[in-house]
Amino acid sequence: MKVEETVQILKFFLMVFNGVFLIIGLAVFGCGIWILFDSSSFVVTISDGRMRLVAGGLFVIGLVVFGVSILGYIATCNEIRFLTILYMGLLLVIFVAQLFVTFVLLLARDEVQGVVVKEVDGVIETYGMENTTNNLWDVLDSVQRHSKCCGRRNYTQWENNTFIKSLPDSENVYPCSCFKSGCPRLNSDPAQRFGNGSAIYTQGCGELIEAWIRENGYAILGMDAGLVLIQVIQFVLSLYFFWNIKRKAKQRELLQDQGYLSASNSAYTHLD
Predict the structure, then answer these.
(1) Is 67 helix (H, G, I), strand (E, B) or coil?
(2) Helix H or strand E segment including 105
């Protein structure tokens, strides 16, 4: 196969894989944005700085992938050897950064689950106390309402709540988010967060939260693995592409030299 044909085929495949690389990179970037700024996520809100570190890593990787993809398009379309080398170097940098984020994510998964258990129990104990406010109360309400669960272990955990224990009659008193339908408001609750009744969700939220952490962790690791696979393919194609455009440039120089010699010989013959 001629060098020019090989270069064009490599261009096509590099464009395709670079496009897939860009799409996955934008997805990773979106995950980073979501973790950093989603205040409605219970796990993200209560977790320590480890999750923020993971989110920052995903954010930076996604942003860099976008820039590197643009660089790859420029290098491929214009057959610029220097930019192709730079492109391959940046692919290696992203690869190392991904390994770091993956390592932190794997280490943080069990730690985040431990932090979640501790923090949820603390929120349940202090929920609804007078003269105090906590944005985690609203987040916990959202989790219980949408996941149709009550408490971390189960609904009986609300017996540990400070406000409920202070009531003269604390039987069947639960947060409104635990009720299956309308909340029978508790008159003695100034904040109107509690109700009195038995039509509540009985399943605990702990298993659902752990499943959320596990599933989303697998999703992030899956995108990370996809990026790694694409990067390996891109690096091999880019290396082969670089070698072929170098051959093409040498052939062009050789043809130019041959043309110059032919022209010189013709001129010399004409003079004779």
Answers:
(1) helix
(2) helix 81-126
HSE-CB at 66 with a 13 A cutoff on CA atoms is 10
Rounded to two decimals, what is the model's pTM? 0.65
Query: Taking a C-beta distance cutoff of 8 angstroms, is the pair 71, 83 a contact?
Result: yes
* Distance, CA of 88 to CA of 94 (rounded, Å): 10
Could you tell me if 140 and 71 are in contact, meaning their C-beta atoms sit under 8 angstroms apart?
no
> How far, in Å, are 125, 141, 150, 166, 167 from residue 188 at the CA level?
18, 20, 21, 11, 8
What is the DSSP code (8-state) at residue 156? G
| pLDDT tens, per residue, the chain with 272 residues | 577 888 888 889 989 988 888 888 888 788 778 776 765 555 555 555 556 666 777 788 888 888 899 998 898 888 888 988 999 999 888 888 878 777 777 776 667 677 777 888 888 888 887 766 567 788 888 888 888 999 888 989 998 888 888 888 888 889 999 998 888 887 766 677 888 888 899 898 888 878 877 777 777 778 778 888 888 888 999 999 889 888 887 877 777 766 654 555 554 454 45
Distances (CA, A) of 169 to 99, 193, 195: 55, 16, 12
- Alpha-carbon separation of residue 113 from 100, 118, 120 (angstroms): 20, 9, 10
| Chain position carrying tokens 């109700």 | 195
